[in-house]
Every structure is written in structure tokens, then in C-alpha cells.
Specification:
- A six-stranded mixed sheet has the order 1-2-6-3-7-18, with helices on both faces. It has a four-stranded antiparallel sheet with strand order 12-14-10-15, covered by helices on one side. A three-stranded antiparallel sheet has the order 4-5-19.
- Strand 4 and strand 5 (93-95) form a beta hairpin.
- Helix 1 (4-12) crosses helix 3, helix 3 (99-119) crosses helix 9 and helix 7 (304-317) packs across helix 9.
- It is elongated.
- It folds into two domains: 4-178 and 297-378, Aminopeptidase (3-Layer(aba) Sandwich); 180-295, Alpha-Beta Plaits (2-Layer Sandwich).
- The chain is α+β, with helices and mostly antiparallel strands.
- The longest helix has 21 residues, at 99-119.
- The chain contains nine helices and 19 strands.
Length: 379
């Protein structure tokens, strides 16, 4: 049997801080190839990605897993009490960057897939898509893998993303969708002047203050059946002006929006630009707007896939998972354009933190859940 704990440790020892591959995908490719998977490296834009399929190409029924081996930087290494890439185990807990997010998830589904196809070869295909670009801009990671699949006529019928999804207790939550995410940057340009003669200047600061207040005070919605209310957070206001006797010529600001299925990136962009234009006309200044949409909101309605996963979780943990859409974004926002997708993984309390860690028992439990999902799907 493939030990998911040993595999997690081996992956954790690979210093795969985005965009470095660090040896993680090389390790996985060897493991999967030895188990009979057809493996293809799908590297793009300096990012390493791995596509692996067991079974004949073109099968009508295929189950896919998606995950990432890249990790965020360790930060202040002196603040760590354990080596960030040591994968040391103490009192049943493994420490290291990526142990939670999400090398344990990748190890669990890779181990489950390898053992499943060896023990009970299914009538269908098992597909693994593993990227090295989830923690950064995600421009050449899962999107590159999906582009490759489209060109190569590869297809997942359904997919499970192994991100950590449980807030506190193993099995308590799975994701059936995610909110959309977007950021807008504003630049208000007026006319510089002496603060003693404000009538000779056009101060961009009151305009920016008005704009930020209007945006932050606006109620986007009150939530939907499967989503919490959309939120807008003011994340930056800056002039770079240290002189108290000068009215600056320019001021910048930014907001971040997490939105549900009542909105789209396009509709919110139109609203933001309209508000900016209204403020520009009121104050007689120029307002520039730059918008980046990181992902649209999406929902995989409760149905056969979510029920399959929920039943497996409950069978292995005794806990019926909540079907949630909370949290940030994940690569499921790309996979949803290819096939139905849900997310389930272990407890994510320590992800991105100093002394990131995972309970060893959770890794073993996660492999058991993924194995049951595969067995029940192909039954």
C-alpha cells in the first residue's frame, strides 16, 4: 500500500515555493508512472504542471483529482520552531510549509489513486491534474492543464479538488462552489497646490474619500440560497504625500470584492466605473479605474457528485459535511468550465502560517475517504 504520510513528508521536503518545482512533480511523476499512469508534463510560462491518466483515453466515465504542489514563502524562518521543509513529526503532527495547503491532499489522492487502480482496476479512467501555480497568479497552472486536455481530447467526467476545506473538524465541510473575486484600483488626479490656498488646487483626497465611502457603504446583496452576502473591503488609500502644506496632485486606492451568484465580474465592473465617473464629475477631477477579475462565482448544485463525496466522508468520519461556498478562491474556478467539480480536504487552520502543520491521522483518513469515493464512483 502507498503510504500517504510518507508521500506527504517527501513532498514537503521539496522546496516548491511558487514558481519553483522543487522536485515535487518529479517525485509524483515517478510514483504514478510506476503504477501504470500515462504522465505528461504540461509546463508553460516557467510553471511546472503534471497530467496523469490511468485507463484508456476517451473513456466516457472518468474521475479526476486536482491539486497543487507549490507553496507560499516561509516568511520569517527564524519564527519557525520546526524546519519549514523538514516534514518532522512530533506528537502525531507533521510540520512544514505545504503540509496543510496542500501537499497532504495531493499525497492522499495520489496514494488513493495508485492503490485503487492496482487493486481494483476500474472500467474507466482516473485522471490527476497537479499544478505548480495555484498560490501565485494561476495563469499557467490549472488553466494550462485544461488547455492541454482540450487540445489532446482528454476529459474528466467529474473532478474533486483536494484543497483543505474543514474549518475545525475533519469531515465537517465540503465546497460545492466559490464566491467570485475581483480587485479594483482607482487613481484620482487633481491639481497640486498650496494647502493655504485650496481654491487654487483640485484636491483628489476628498474625491477619493467620497468614492471609498460610497463603495463601502453600498449593500451589494443579502446572500442567496447557497451563498453568503457579497462583501467589499477597502484595502488601500495612499497619497505618498508627507508634506502638510501641499495638496497632492494624485491619490490612489483599492477595493477587493468577494461576490456571489447574483453578480458577475462584468456587472460589478460597470457599477464601479459608474461610481468613479459620478465622483469625477462631482469634484471636477479625473478618476482612472483598473480592474482584475480573479474568478467568477460558481456553484455545482447539490446532486450525484456532491452526494457521492458526502456519503464517503460520513462513512469514514461519522460526520455529515456541510455543503458550503465560503472561503476564498481555488482552482475549482477553472475546473468548473470543464466538468462538475467539488472540493474536499482536511482541516486548514494552519495553512500559510508559521509552523504550518497537519495531524498525521488526518492524512490517513483523507486517503481512506478518497479511496471510498473512487470505489463508489466506479461501482
Amino acid at each position: 500500500m502507498t503510504d500517504p504520510v510518507e508521500l506527504t513528508a517527501a513532498l514537503t521536503r521539496c522546496p516548491s515555493v511558487t514558481p519553483e518545482e522543487g522536485g515535487a512533480l518529479v517525485l509524483l511523476e515517478q510514483l504514478l508512472s510506476d503504477a501504470g499512469f500515462d504522465c505528461t508534463r504540461v509546463d508553460r510560462g516557467g510553471i511546472s504542471n503534471l497530467f496523469a491518466r490511468w485507463g484508456e483515453k476517451g473513456h466516457v466515465r472518468s474521475f479526476g483529482f486536482n491539486g497543487h504542489t507549490d507553496v507560499v514563502p516561509v516568511g520569517d524562518e527564524a519564527a519557525w520552531t520546526m524546519p519549514p521543509f523538514g516534514a518532522e513529526i512530533r506528537d502525531g503532527v507533521m510540520y512544514g510549509r505545504g503540509t496543510t495547503d496542500m501537499k497532504s491532499g495531493v499525497a492522499a489522492f495520489a496514494a488513493a489513486a495508485v492503490d485503487f487502480v492496482r487493486d481494483t482496476p476500474p472500467d474507466g479512467a482516473v485522471i490527476l491534474t497537479i499544478t505548480g501555480d495555484e498560490e501565485a497568479d494561476a495563469l499557467d497552472g490549472t488553466t494550462a492543464l485544461l488547455d492541454y486536455m482540450a487540445e489532446a481530447d482528454e476529459k474528466m467526467s467529474v473532478c474533486l479538488v483536494g484543497e483543505p476545506t474543514c474549518p475545525n473538524t475533519m469531515g465537517e465541510m465540503m465546497k460545492i462552489g466559490r464566491r467570485g473575486s475581483m480587485t479594483a484600483w482607482f487613481t484620482v488626479t487633481g491639481v497640486q497646490g498650496h494647502s493655504a490656498y485650496p481654491h487654487r488646487a483640485k484636491n483628489p483626497l476628498p474625491a477619493m474619500a467620497r468614492l471609498m465611502d460610497r463603495l463601502a457603504s453600498h449593500e451589494l446583496d443579502r446572500g442567496t440560497d447557497h451563498f453568503d452576502a457579497s462583501t467589499l473591503a477597502v484595502v488601500n488609500i495612499d497619497t505618498g504625500n508627507e508634506a502638510t502644506n501641499v495638496i497632492p496632485a494624485q491619490c490612489s486606492g483599492a477595493v477587493n470584492i468577494r461576490f456571489n451568484d447574483l453578480h458577475s465580474g462584468a456587472s460589478l465592473s460597470e457599477w464601479l466605473r459608474t461610481e468613479a465617473q459620478n465622483v469625477a464629475e462631482t469634484f471636477g477631477v479625473e478618476v482612472g479605474v483598473k480592474i482584475k477579475i480573479s474568478g467568477e462565482s460558481f456553484l455545482t448544485p447539490p446532486g450525484p457528485l456532491s452526494e457521492l463525496v458526502a456519503q464517503a466522508i460520513e462513512a469514514e468520519t461519522g460526520v455529515r459535511p456541510e455543503m458550503s461556498t465560503t472561503g476564498g478562491t481555488s482552482d475549482a474556478r477553472f475546473v468548473k468550465n470543464h466538468c462538475p467539480v467539488v472540493e474536499f480536504g482536511l482541516v486548514g487552520r494552519t495553512m500559510h502560517q508559521v509552523d504550518e502543520c497537519v495531524e498525521v491521522a488526518q492524512i490517513e483518513q483523507l486517503k481512506a475517504i478518497y479511496t471510498r469515493i473512487l470505489r463508489d464512483y466506479f461501482a
